Amino acid sequence: MSNVGFRIYTKVERPSKELVEAFKGLPTPNIADNMSRFFCVDAAIKPMNSKHLLGTALTVRSSTADNLMFHKALDMAEPGDVIVVDVQGDMINSVAGEIMMRYAMKRGIVGFLIDGAVRDSGALKNLDFAVYARGANPKGPYKDGPGEINVPVSCGGVVVNPGDIIVGDEDGVVVITPKDAPEVLEKARATFAKEASIFEAIEGGTLDRSWVDKVLQEKGCEIID
Fold it and tell me: What is the pTM of this model?
């Protein structure tokens, strides 16, 4: 008999560390543009400090105002994991604070992605640990459950599966399915290189802007003197 809504799956199929690390330094816009501008977490989920996020998802679906399953996930996670927590965007109670963050750091967890609130945001600013959340609230959580670990969750409007690659920077967070990751990586690198050449053209005064008028003409824009 399965206890739907209150269960833990222990196995996560993670991509290789080499594949994950290959995304290091690539801006999230370059990645998102090569996924048809989908798979971007809601902009309301923001970086709570300046630490970038890169790792593999270990997912938690939790009751609002509760972090029992989040705590269990801390003990299950492996080095390089990002704990992704779905509390349905609830901002009434925080579900993580400095103690959990410091414990996660000690275990090699690289960050939290939370569709909800955290607390101890002042201390967090000085921690070498990435946290993305909707904001802060001093009101703490309960530890009653239920919830689920390592199931598909919704985080900022994006479905996140265990083992997905999570990339976060100042612009926000993108979620990459491992089977798509090699192709996305190749295209994102090409976009990054293309932008570098555009920057050089801007500085050298050779940037071709003729495409703007061409597109306007193709779309039938009327230009009036």
Answer: 0.95
